[in-house]
Amino acid sequence: MGPRFRGDGGCGTWLGKQHFTGLGSMDGDNGRAEGTAADKPGDYVLPFQLEASGARGRLIRLGPAVDEILTRHAYPEPVLLLLGEAVALTALLGASLKFDGRLILQTQSGGPVSFMVVQYSTPGHLRGYAAFNGDEVAKASNGGAAAKVLLGGGQLAMTIDPGAGMERYQGIVALTGETLADAAHEYFDRSEQIPTFIRIAVARHYTGPDGSAPGKWTWRAGGLMVQKLTAEGGRFGGGEGLASGITGDDDDDGWRRALALAATVEDHELLDPALPSERLLYRLFHEETVRAFTASPLAARCGCSRERVEAMLERFSEDDIADMAKDNVIAVTCEFCNRNYKFDADRYLKRDSE
Length: 354
Ligand SMILES: [Zn+2]
Prior knowledge:
Elements: E1 4-5, E2 44-50, E3 55-62, H1 64-71, H2 77-94, E4 102-109, E5 113-121, E6 125-132, H3 134-140, H4 147-151, E7 154-161, E8 169-174, H5 180-192, E9 196-207, E10 216-228, H6 253-262, H7 267-271, H8 277-285, E11 290-292, E12 296-297, E13 299-300, H9 306-314, H10 318-324, E14 329-334, E15 340-344, H11 346-349
Parallel strand pairs: 1-14, 6-13
Antiparallel strand pairs: 2-3, 2-11, 2-12, 3-10, 4-5, 4-7, 5-6, 7-8, 9-10, 14-15
Helix pairs in contact: 1-2
Residues 302, 304, 334, 336-337, 339 line the site of zinc ion.
């Protein structure tokens, strides 16, 4: 078993963990983009505006992308559910980026799932993994396992990385609520003081047999985020402040109405691939004059590469390389996507004597 690398994870310094740098960013724009239109059961984010209530929001629907991210890992079901929530939340927040860059969501906590990281890289690329103690997860999962139990006390960090040497912004909030969405909600409440609604749903979805293809279970996720429009905008909410064309009330009545309507959304509505997003938005918000914008595709894409792993290995000492090598082979597995890379150890052992 060779070393496992974690990209740079965008982990900043607060984790106090060792991370390799330079592997994390994603390149190119050739991710799969099935179902880019909001009326197809694919992977996408659909921004919208509630004209009468002075609010805006985003709806995400994840099918093949979240299924690919989760099924790459042989994690226990409760961990997959939790990671699925983190993927959906990251997609909701990451879709607010107005520039090329990354949004990284991480948890570090004392429970059975000690660490989770999900990255969103423009345009819409998602990847993630979790670190956990299998025995503790099994014990905690008896009789259901809420995020609160699996994560335990700790922190949720949301980092915006504009790349190109520009300064990162990191928001950190304690994991005190029942779900990850609760923690994000707490962040918007306290740090940004922007009234925000977030709901996330994750589940396995059964697709019946179609012709000769047998029926199968796949992961799906969905999320709804609604925010009151404020003059300042917000770092993770959209950032542009009051959008044009909004005629919302100056007082809080409009926001209260939007919140009450958003709260009626059901998990199955967020997850159902047969329910078009525009229809769901209309069902929820038609009283507030809902306007949907253009949907953007989301995709599972890691972005690790042989070149990046090589660059990482170049930074190890010969002793470290010798420790890693087995039968002169260094095998490296990407934590995010489980891809394996193999290298000839000689190449790294002899470099100093050349
Ligand atoms: Zn990878």
